[in-house]
Amino acid sequence: MKKYFIFLVLVVLLGVVLNSFLNSYIQAIFISFMINAVMALSLNFITGLADQFSLGHAGLMAIGAYTSAVLNKEFFNDQWIMIPVGVLCGGFLAAVAGYLLSLPSFRLKGDYIAIVTLGLAEIVRILLLNWKHVGGPRGYNAITKFPDFFLSYGFAVLLLFITFMTMYRLKISWFGRNLWAINEDDIAAEVMGLEIAKTKRYAFTISSFFAGLGGGFYSHHLGYISPGSFGFIISVQILIIAVLGGLGSLSGSILAAAILTFLPELLRSVQTGSLDLRMIIYPILLILMMILRPQGLFGRKEIYEFLSEKWKTKLGIQL
Amino acid sequence: MQEFLQHTLNGLSIGSIYALLALGYTMVYGILGMINFAHSEIYMMGAFGAFYTARFLGLDTPSVLNFAIGLCGAVLFAAAVGFLVEKFAYKPLRNSPKMNVLITAIGVSILFQFGGQIIFGADPKAFPTLIEDQNLFSLFDSPIHLTDLLIYFVSFASLGILSFIIFKTQTGRAMRAVSTRPDMTPLMGINNNKIISMTFVIGSALAGVAAVLVSIKYPKIDPMMGVRIGMASFVAAVFGGIGSLHGAVVGGFLLGLGETYLIGYGASTYKDAFSFVILIIVLLYKPTGLFGTTRREKI
Question: How many domains, in total, are found in chain A?
Answer without folding.
Answer: 1
